[in-house]
Amino acid sequence: GAVVSQHPSWVICKSGTSVKIECRSLDFQATTMFWYRQFPKQSLMLMATSNEGSKATYEQGVEKDKFLINHASLTLSTLTVTSAHPEDSSFYICSAPTLNPRTDTQYFGPGTRLTVL
Amino acid sequence: QQQVKQSPQSLIVQKGGISIINCAYENTAFDYFPWYQQFPGKGPALLIAIRPDVSEKKEGRFTISFNKSAKQFSLHIMDSQPGDSATYFCAASISDSNYQLIWGAGTKLIIKP
Lengths: 117, 113
Fold this sequence. Notes:
Oligomer: heterodimer
Largest sheet of chain A: 7 strands, mixed
Number of helices of chain B: 0
Order of helices and strands of chain B: EEEEEEEEEEE
Number of strands of chain B: 11
Largest interface: A-B, 26 and 22 residues
Low-confidence stretches of chain B: none
Distance between the termini of chain B: 39 Å
Structural class of chain A: mainly beta
Low-confidence stretches of chain A: none
Distance between the termini of chain A: 37 Å
Structural class of chain B: mainly beta
């Protein structure tokens, strides 16, 4: 199946710094990618939809100025957590659907564990 | 109406037994129903998916049963193994909705050896 990678797999940063997380589709092109965050023992919460060549669409309650998304190419989307605080500590996961409308299959990255001290 | 309700929250099954996880939805526009498996510290992985034009889909030990009239679908894991211990999520989407998935709350499955 298709592969989606994320980098880094984990990151520890100090409060007030910014952190960039990359999401890459390795063997297919993705005009759309999704960014989720997941707290322990909870389901995935959609943060935003990343669209190649255009602005991301953010879910209600997600601060677009805090979580900057850039989808510069058909295989790369980045999420930058700006001025991170301890409450931003979470597991961030990206996903990308293949372009086959009959399968609608979404492939997920392995996730990035962010810890803000 | 956009919710997908998943039960049970947790499940313990003996090795070799059948694990059954259920999901229900309200929005009749949903036309794609995948199940994802997630191990701790990893991203979800697609396990099996179904569309409403069939009532059952089987892949190895995993079977989805789909009841369109009841707006319910379930995952059956036959001959459950300790390696199946993970959290399972059902989801639903509408084909023309930009692939956005609506997620169930998840079921933590533990297979006892």
